[in-house]
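Please check both lines for our workbook:

___
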Amino acid sequence: MKYKILEETIVYNGYFQLFEADIKHELFNGSSVQVKRLAFERGDSAAILLYETDSRSFLLTGQFRYPTCKHNKGWIREIVAGSIESGEDPETCIIREVREELGYDISKPKLIHTFYTSPGGCTERMFLYYSEVCRKDKKFSGGGTAKENEDIQQVRIPESGIKEELSSLEDAKTIIAFQWFLLNRI
């Protein structure tokens, strides 16, 4: 099926960008339609399910997330993740994020899936990885970066409690990662 972006403009240009486009695209019945659409440009991200073998636990983060305040949350548990910086590949990004957020040194994480986070309105793709570590791999303090005012707490979830944890998690990438693990037990 074909589409054509007739016009695209930036309607907001701050930390993120918001685009508005006039698009003409084919319909499943063979005809076509012209529509206006908005897209939130946030950039791509990388995330990782980190498993600590000697404690048989998953290592997550606990941190404040402003958008969740709309639903009276504030703090949530999620796997390590971060925005891919300009010129950075997803693997380099996730290695950096693990060091910054939890203090572990990893190499060669396994890419398990790439997906859109919210394709109805956001351009972001998430590169989801898996890696195993042990306690001796903790070489840095973690907790986030001061320049970003991050305050990140390490959260351990025992492998034996993963199914019970799934019902209380609210972060999609973390739910996807745990479900992947349950389906593909290493």
Q: What stands out?
A: The radius of gyration is 19 Å. The chain has two domains: 3-41, 45-183.
